């Protein structure tokens, strides 16, 4: 029992900080609401169009602002008071969700409206994400930063269990429109948490003064640091072609297994069960390495290929747990590496580049995978994603092993003899 208590204290050590506890509670509620909306949005478009490409398009539009302006949002996050930025973005996202819900409930929603509101919601996401990620490190002591970042990731994986389950219940009993209203209300929790914080206990990074070339400076900083460069490249490519589960899982449910919204929500919840276990393990670790990120990518590729071959929804459901675990182990560790290895004055820009690498790749990847799934069948999307993760992981592992071998050879080489 003592060992269990010690492990628990080690895993949740950053919760000792009151401001972080308030922040995390608000994020849990808001993230769950966001997943309620995400399930509803996916199923709404699939119901309206019966087309996987349309699902990919709406996801692409939702994250297009991240791809276009996400890096600049990181520059703003390094310049501005992050708490004030989060107040504004939470309010904006709540308004977008409420408008979407009202249109669906009034039964006047059309596809172009869904596309427009998805893109508008994406603007709030683009501004919110780098501020939210880098704000975490200002709430806790430096030695708790990696743990706090990992627990922050666990919030979104926990939400992936709670959100789809709540969405399935709401869709079955009240209708899709109320899912958007629930998400709008969930942002109140973030606003209240931010308002209740002890401002004097926050340790903000020194604001970056306005100046030219700050975005380029951030790019050069990432490229000059091997761990950051490797992590962001892996995230960009795998995020583009592997992380399209809204498209691939919904397509498998409807076309391969002939299921409904409840089936879709249950499978997402099973993936998230594995994801929660993975993020808690990452939080428990004292340090997350680039090698861990790479091994998680390889595991993701393997389980995606197994999922592609699943003969029934039961087998797919079994595979969904380790697939979810490996996917979030990759994302959580990649996010922790990108923030813990960055200097404080660059964390906003590094967080933004990580966001662009992952969320910003969706406008490219979602329509591609949606189109492939529409033409070649629902299993093809999982095959493309699995092969991508395996190939990228293998290349990164080979490069890492080569760097380790080179460093070992340099240390073993005797110093040159002094000239006579």
Task: Provide structural commentary.
With 420 residues, the protein is mostly helical. The chain has a single domain, classed as MFS general substrate transporter like domains (Growth Hormone, Chain: A, Up-down Bundle), CATH 1.20.1250. Helix content is 82%, strand content 0%. It is built from 16 helices and no strands. α4 runs antiparallel to α7 and α6 packs antiparallel against α13. It is globular, with a radius of gyration of 21 Å. The N and C termini lie far apart (68 Å).
Present the secondary structure layout.
Layout lengths: L1 H10 L6 H32 L2 H28 L2 H24 L5 H29 L5 H29 L3 H20 L17 H11 L1 H16 L3 H12 L4 H24 L5 H19 L4 H28 L6 H12 L3 H15 L1 H35 L8
Helix pairs in contact: 1-11, 2-3, 2-5, 2-6, 2-7, 3-5, 3-10, 3-14, 3-15, 4-5, 4-7, 5-14, 6-11, 6-13, 9-12, 9-13, 9-14, 9-16, 10-11, 10-16, 11-13, 12-13, 12-16, 15-16
State mean pLDDT (0 to 100 scale): 83
What's the CATH C level? Mainly Alpha
* Fraction of residues in helix: over 70%
List the domain count as a whole number.
Answer: 1
The H-level CATH homologous superfamily, spelled out, is MFS general substrate transporter like domains
Q: What is the CATH topology assignment?
A: Growth Hormone, Chain: A
Largest sheet: none
Shape verdict: globular
How many DSSP E strands? 0
Alpha carbon gyration radius? 21 Å
Distance between the termini: 68 Å
């Amino acid at each position: 029992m003592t060992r269990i208590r010690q492990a628990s204290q080690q895993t949740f050590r950053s919760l000792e900080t009151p401001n972080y506890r308030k922040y995390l509670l608000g994020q849990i509620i808001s993230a769950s609401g966001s997943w309620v909306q995400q399930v509803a949005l996916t199923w709404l478009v699939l119901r309206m169009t019966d087309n996987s490409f349309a699902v990919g398009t709406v996801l692409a539009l939702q994250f297009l602002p991240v791809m276009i302006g996400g890096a600049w949002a990181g520059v703003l996050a390094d310049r501005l008071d992050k708490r004030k930025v989060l107040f504004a973005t939470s309010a904006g996202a709540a308004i977008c969700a409420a408008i979407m819900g009202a249109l669906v409930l009034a039964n006047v929603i059309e596809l172009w409206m869904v596309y427009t509101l998805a893109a508008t919601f994406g603007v709030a996401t683009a501004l919110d994400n780098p501020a939210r990620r880098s704000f975490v490190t200002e709430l806790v002591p430096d030695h708790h930063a990696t743990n706090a970042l990992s627990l922050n990731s666990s919030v979104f994986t926990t939400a992936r269990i709670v959100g789809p389950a709540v969405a399935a219940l709401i869709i079955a009993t009240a209708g899709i429109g109320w899912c958007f209203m629930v998400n709008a209300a969930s942002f109140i929790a973030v606003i209240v948490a931010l308002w209740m914080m002890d401002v004097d206990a926050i340790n903000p990074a020194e604001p970056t003064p306005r100046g030219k070339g700050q975005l380029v400076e951030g790019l050069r900083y990432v490229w000059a640091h091997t761990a950051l460069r490797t992590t962001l490249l892996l995230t960009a490519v795998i995020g583009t072609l592997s992380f399209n589960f809204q498209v691939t899982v919904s397509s498998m449910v409807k076309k391969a297994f002939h299921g409904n919204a409840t089936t879709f929500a249950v499978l997402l919840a099973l993936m998230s069960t594995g994801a929660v276990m993975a993020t808690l393990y990452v939080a428990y670790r004292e340090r997350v390495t680039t090698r861990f990120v790479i091994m998680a990518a390889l595991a993701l590729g393997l389980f995606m290929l197994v999922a592609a071959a699943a003969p029934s929804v039961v087998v797919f459901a079994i595979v969904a747990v380790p697939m979810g675990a490996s996917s979030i182990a990759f994302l959580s560790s990649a996010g922790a590496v990108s923030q813990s290895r960055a200097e404080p004055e660059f964390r906003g820009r590094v967080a933004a580049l990580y966001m662009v690498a992952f969320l910003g790749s969706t406008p490219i990847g979602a329509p591609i995978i949606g189109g492939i799934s529409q033409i070649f069948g629902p299993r093809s999307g999982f095959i493309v994603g699995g092969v991508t993760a395996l190939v990228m992981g293998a290349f990164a592992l080979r490069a890492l092993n080569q760097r380790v071998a080179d460093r070992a050879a340099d240390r073993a080489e005797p110093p040159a003899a002094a000239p006579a």
